[in-house]
Amino acid sequence: MGATAMTSTNPAHLEYVLRLGDAALIHGQRLSEWCGQAPVLEEDLALANMALDFVGQARMLLSHAGTLEGKGRDEDTLAFLRHEGQYRNPTLCEMPNTDFAHTMIKGFLLGSFNLLMWSRLCGSSDKALAAIAAKSLKEARYHAEHTGDWVIRLGDGTEESHRRAQAALDMLWPYTNELFAANPTDDAAAAAGVGPAWSDLAEDWEKAVLPVLKHATLTVPARTPFQTYGKFGRHSEHLGHLLAVMQHLPRSFPGATW
Amino acid sequence: MERKEWPLWEIFVRSKNGLDHKHCGSVHATDARMALQVARDVYTRRQEGVSIWAVKASDIVASDPDAKPELFDPAEDKIYRHPTFYKLPDEVDHM
């Protein structure tokens, strides 16, 4: 295949792109679960639009990962025909929606991270990845703004919305530890100029996130040693259920089109 | 039970630079920022626009439908107000 020239001999490069692709895919799948379920029609469309942005990013990233791998796996094969332990998304992405506040808090924590990530990846030594980043950055700006506004509206809203937003933050905050945990893949990807070590984004992320949470009158939980390992394929109990729904159709009807 | 609806906003979208903003519908939103965001999500997801105006529906002053006779009927027999009676030079004949 002519694609061999574009494959990467650096396994960390592939792992890094796969992680980005899986993060977008799983977060997008979770958002899509709101379709037809959101509290109001306007937000139903907003959530579906965001879900489609993430699925679009996942398609580009997984296609690119398939090319880097050079074993003939395309975006669909990677998205739908891997097993749970082969997904590289941070655990935070797969956490259940629970309620609207959970989805908005999670969307904001991840969205703020994505915004920093795509800004940095615009300068990637991997030109295809830099192009994906330039497109995704525009989408990420909107996601961070829309979810950030909701965090403030819910946190600084009614007694009930505040209680739910605080519960969501208490629940999800420990999972952000994983985003910034140092690991050899990040070190190698950063050394090759593919993208930043995620731990390098921690400070800027807090600078972006904390003022919004404060404005929302939410209490930021203290950091604990709690660690999750979704990036390394060790997921929570939630991912298997998500994959069962997401993979059902392509596994039951291989090659189905409509 | 009383329903506490979010305020209604009328949405106007400009399809491209140089054209007018056209009314395309309405959304419910808690505040102006949200009105613009959801208008973007509801009305421009197929590249329909380059600019959005959101106007609080309660801020629009509308004519009374019952006042149609006195407001609009008197114009009925004044067809000379249409510029069709004037001979226009060919160059501007597309008015």
TrEMBL record, chain B:
Record carries keyword Oxidoreductase: yes
Keywords of this entry: Oxidoreductase
Record-listed E.C. numbers: 1.14.13.149
Matches recorded under InterPro entries: PaaB (IPR009359), PaaB_sf (IPR038693)
A GO molecular-function descriptor: phenylacetyl-CoA 1,2-epoxidase activity
Pfam families per UniProt: PaaB
Transmembrane segments: none
Gene3D superfamilies membership: Phenylacetic acid degradation B
Secretion signal, residue range per the UniProt entry: none
Keyword Oxidoreductase on entry: yes
Family annotation (NCBIfam families): PA_CoA_Oxy2
The name this protein goes by in its record: 1,2-phenylacetyl-CoA epoxidase subunit B
Organism in which the protein naturally occurs: Denitromonas ohlonensis
